[in-house]
Fold each of these.
Amino acid sequence: MFELPSLNYDYEALSRSISGDVMRFHHDKHHQTYVDKLNAVIEANPEIKGKTVEYLITNVGSFLPSIQTAIRNHGGGHYNHSFFWLCMSPNGGGEPKGEVAQLIQAKYGDFQSFVDEFTARALGVFGSGWVWLQPNGDIITTANQDTPIAQGLDSPLLCLDVWEHAYYLDYKNRRDDYIKSWWNVVDWDSVAKRYSER
Ligand SMILES: [Fe+2]
């Protein structure tokens, strides 16, 4: 059975960008609900027990049609949020170094141009979804709780949750202010680690 992963930092630790209230609701309520609903599907369908979440969401088409949507939404919700927490740190912000800096420079020219493009894509997500930086430097978006790996793409380097539940308590409808502030907590060290281990 899946469990809600603990955060590597306190709920209040990202408060210069995301309040403790939002982190508590987002992690303890929203993410927990995805975990609980994913576990409920597995409970009712023992043939998919013991699989990783990555396996479940990348093989969703092979399961009973009646459970595919639930696996996609709740499995994706668990995968995406587990990934998102790792993309932020109280010591985050600034610019990437080394190989990741080179990747971004090669694709976008400079860091600010990358930030502008990522931000534009995040603002362009209609409704709920996610923005991702891929190991080839591409910026992609997914709707709802869809994931890059379920689309046959490589494991991502970085993601941003642009569901309203990620920012509404702090920023109301101002997704642009949320994104602008989020760059101050991006954990580029974790991005570099994922890039080097790809
Ligand atoms: Fe979320």
Amino acid sequence: MTETFDIAIIGAGIVGLAVAEALAVKGRRLVVMEKNDAFGQETSSRNSEVIHAGLYYPKVFLKSSLCIEGNRLLYKWCKKHHVPHQRIGKFIVATNEEECADLERIGVTAEENGVEALEFLGRMQIKSLDPEITALEALFSKNTGIVDSHRLMQTLLARAEDKGAILTCRAEVTAIHFNGATWDININDGEYRVITKTLINSAGLHADRIAALAGIDIDESGYRLKPCKGNYFTATPAPKINHLIYPVPVKNNIGLGIHTTLDLSGRVRFGPDSQYMSTSQPLDYAVDESLKPVFYESIKRYLPGVPIDALNPDMSGIRPKIQGPGDPVMDFIIREESERGLPGLVNLIGIESPGLTACLAIGAYINKIVSFR
Ligand SMILES: Cc1cc2nc3c(=O)[nH]c(=O)nc-3n(C[C@H](O)[C@H](O)[C@H](O)COP(=O)(O)OP(=O)(O)OC[C@H]3O[C@@H](n4cnc5c(N)ncnc54)[C@H](O)[C@@H]3O)c2cc1C
């Protein structure tokens, strides 16, 4: 069976769904193809669910502009569509003099980037807001929040479907062919075909494989992904905290450091850490209990009241990183591929954090850079 569409999106994670919502208009034929049984079963349901404010990224990065814009759009969306969320606020805590200097630098970069609602707090102010934290100084970001990512994806899909978009699950893209005018996509090894003028690759951890299927040399283009696992632990009993707590990130950070988050039910989680995985292995989400001492050492610097015996392994997620071990921090790649002779193909590569925060801004950005044929 063969079906023809104007736009086909590979991947029903939070970004694929946000792009579908942004591009769906009545009368335009749009399909989202997802290999799993339902939307959002990979990275989009394995993360900290934090609405970031855009504090860390270099100003020229899409990560910075799309995060700041995405933060604004996401609060608006959540309010309008009744998605549970909370502007809970976050501390970045400095526990020694060197970190205090780093914190100053983070504050300067964030303000230059246009991040609003930031405040430096001293030891006593921190204690009065969150008595269990021990820190010399903190940068407090009022616009950092938390969101119910599953409800968010449900509302994005519902809005896209209202405008005529179709989600098809158990539909794995297994081959892609460009005939010079349209894209011919093979699903489930020949079970059916989709023909489309515009093809959007939002396949998360598999986006490099999709780019390769479309004829791109992923090493020469810099699209090869280096999956990087992030493990989480919980604590019983949990510390009583009122805000998100992040350490000062180390240079060329591959993650933001083992932080402490709350979800909307008040559950406290620690993580994620950062561990590169072998690309030849299948994705493994098991959390190794032997990581407990590393988590304990990290957390005790700013939450000294959590005993090591209280920690229990929780879930994990895997970052689709372009940045390999030892590399400098890298930006999202969001590119329409006409210059490679592949018009109508849009690749989204390396959409790690703050991809959830940025999802609506990414949808708006693609609407701007792509001219629909
Ligand atoms: C540990 C961790 C913590 C994070 N914390 C935060 C946070 O607090 N705040 C924040 O803003 N961001 C955070 N992020 C980042 C955020 O989770 C991601 O940027 C976002 O979920 C990416 O969404 P996506 O739609 O691009 O990818 P995914 O959710 O991975 O979706 C891609 C989809 O493509 C499908 N797919 C792949 N290949 C094919 C194929 N061949 N055919 C059909 N379908 C295919 C997959 O099945 C999948 O459903 C975190 C990430 C991690 C790993």
Amino acid sequence: MTYRKKKNSDTWHWCTNCSKWPTSDYDTSYSKPSSGELCNECKAKQSAGTCKN
Ligand SMILES: [Zn+2]
């Protein structure tokens, strides 16, 4: 799973269909980030089974 975080933001996203999925100016992490926040929308999509990676 790939995590993306917009630069100057503390929120990590991992669902490519998240409305806030960063497409430019982002940092990438290939493992679960140890710092920062996890996106609530991505969490909701994962719970609902609609998270696309
Ligand atoms: Zn998100």
Amino acid sequence: MKAELCQFCLRSGILCSKCRAKLERGEVTRLDLEIARLLVSIEDKYPLLQDVYFHGAVEADNILAILVRRGDANKILSYGGKIIRFLEDKTGKSIRILEYNTNERKFLEDLFSPLSILTINKIWLPDGTVETRVILKGRKKSSLNVNAMREIAKRVRGITLRVEFAD
Ligand SMILES: [Zn+2]
């Protein structure tokens, strides 16, 4: 697996001076380090992980979003979801795999999966700010943590979501 942290640090958990500086500057967080090391620990079992670029992890409420490069989400989602279950067991969180640098529609589809998106559009507010409205198919599901999803979208993509439901 590739990441902002070097292979030595990912494997040993001991930070070299370069990686420690990244941590101190906030370019890498403790959470990033923790998740990256979990992924590295199962690389031999799931070799597709060797090609995955891990960009970081973002936590909101009980949801942990794992950010990977465009095209890498499927590698983690293969193996019948075993990698997801491993991460859920280890962290106690609900896991989402998101591509941080993909197009906005794909990002939102992955964020709200398995719900399907009917419409995405922009709303310009009188104060000049823009919201991205996402209309999901179905009635509001209590299992969907809308606030956590909004926070993840804000932190990863800088977009303000307005989430609605329609049949
Ligand atoms: Zn290092």
